[in-house]
Write the structure tokens for this entry.
Amino acid sequence: MVINQLAAKELLIARYYIKNEKWIPAINRLKIIVKSYDKTIFVEEALHRLVEIYYKIGLNEEAKAAAILLGYNYNSSEWYEKSYKILNKDYKPIKIDKEKDDGLVKRTIKKILFIDEK
């Protein structure tokens, strides 16, 4: 629990630096989270913020490297999707129509009962 608090403190300070456009101190704080607090829940956001900063200052290879690391470890997180949007401006998330997609159980029941789906 103490480690989570320390990581949260580093992220809070990094956000302050980002808000004030102090890129180098923000990068340093975010790297501390990634290296020293890699088992906390704050790593995902730290990697995303690194992607944002690197992309903003023109370090595209570093941004891609941070995004790859984020995608490899947290590919289903909201932070990965946000990072992907930064690097791929044409990205459109796939929306699943809940009314149209009944799910496996309902489709199976409909097949068993021979219910017409029109």
The chain has a mean pLDDT of 81. Helices lie at 2-19, 23-36, 43-56, 60-74, 78-87, 104-113. The CA atoms of residues 12 and 36 lie 16 Å apart.
